[in-house]
Amino acid sequence: MTVTHREPVRFLVFSASLRTGSLNTRLAVLAAAAIRANGGQADVASMRDFDAPSYNTDVQDNEGFPAGADRFRASLTACDGFVICAPEYNASMPGALKNAIDWVSRYKPQPFNELHGLLMSASPSMGGGNRGLWSLRVPLEHLGTRLYPDMFSLAQAQHAFDDLDQIADPRLRDRFAANIENFMDLVEASKHYPCVKRHWVEYLGEHPEPELDRVE
Ligand SMILES: Cc1cc2nc3c(=O)[nH]c(=O)nc-3n(C[C@H](O)[C@H](O)[C@H](O)COP(=O)(O)O)c2cc1C
C-alpha cells in the first residue's frame, strides 16, 4: 500500500556490504524505493562512504576523525531514521560496520542517540542473516537508538529476487512492505505529532527519570 500524504520524513538507507553484487545492497535498493513510494525521502549511501581505518584513540587524538566517520555522522545527523541492510558474518555483524559505529560513537553529541532505526538482512542461509541483526541491536541500543522491534531477514536470498529485482514470494514481499510502512508511521508520529510521548524507556513499565536518561 502507498500513502497519499505524509509529513516530511527523511531516511538514510545503506547496505553494510562492501562488495559489488551484494544481496544486501539489492535489499537496500528495495527499501529506498518502498520509502519513496510511501511518501518519504530516502538518501541512499554505500558502506564504502562510511568505511574507516580500525578505530584507534591515538589516531582520533592526533589526526582527528577519518573522512568516512565524518560522512557517516553527517548522514545520520541529516535523517529522521535509518535502515541498515547488514550481512551476517560468523553469526554477527561485519567488522566494517562495527568499526564505523565505534567511530561515530565518539562524536559529541553522539548521533545515534534518539535516532530511529530499522534493521534488515539478506543471506544465502536459511536464517537470512537474522543472528547478525541481533548482534547489531546491542551497540545500537546501547547508543540510544530507537530500534524498531520488527526486523526483516531474507533467507536464501540468492534465489529470492525475481527478474525485476523484486522479492519474488508475494507473502514475503508484503511483509517487507508492511515493515517499512509501519516503521515510517512511527518515525513520522515521533517527529510531527507533539502529542506523542517523546520519552524512550528501555523496559516496559520503566518510568522516565532524569537519572535513567541516556547520556550523550
Ligand atoms: C566472513 C564471512 C562470514 C559469513 N558468515 C555467515 C553467517 O554466519 N551466516 C550467514 O547466514 N552467512 C554468512 N556468510 C555468508 C554471507 O551471508 C554471504 O556472503 C552474503 O552474500 C553476504 O552479504 P552480501 O551479499 O550483501 O555481501 C558469511 C560470509 C563471509 C564472507
Question: What are the SSEs and their pairings?
Answer:
Blueprint (H helix, E strand, L loop, with lengths): L9 E6 L7 H15 L3 E6 H4 L6 H7 L3 H12 L2 E5 L9 H10 L11 E7 L7 H13 L3 E2 L4 E3 L15 H23 L24
Helix pairs in contact: 4-5
The protein binds flavin mononucleotide (FMN).
Flavin mononucleotide binds next to helix 1.
Strand-residue fraction?
5-15%
* Helix-strand makeup class: alpha/beta
The helix content, as a percent range, equals 25-40%
Q: How many beta strands in the DSSP annotation?
A: 6
> Could you tell me the radius of gyration in angstroms?
17 Å
Largest sheet: 6 strands, parallel
The distinct bound ligands, ions and cofactors come out as: flavin mononucleotide
Average pLDDT, all residues: 92
What's the shape? Answer: globular
Structural account:
With 216 residues, the protein is α/β, with parallel strands linked by helices. It has helices at residues 23-37, 47-50, 57-63, 67-78, 95-104, 130-142, 170-192; strands at residues 10-15, 41-46, 81-85, 116-122, 146-147, 152-154. Strands 1, 2, 3, 4, 5 and 6 form a six-stranded parallel sheet that branches. Helix 4 (67-78) crosses helix 5. It is globular, with a radius of gyration of 17 Å. The structure holds flavin mononucleotide. Flavin mononucleotide (FMN) is lined by residues 17, 19, 22-24, 87-91, 123-125, 127, 129. Residues 17, 19, 22-24, 87-91, 123-125, 127, 129 line the site of flavin mononucleotide.
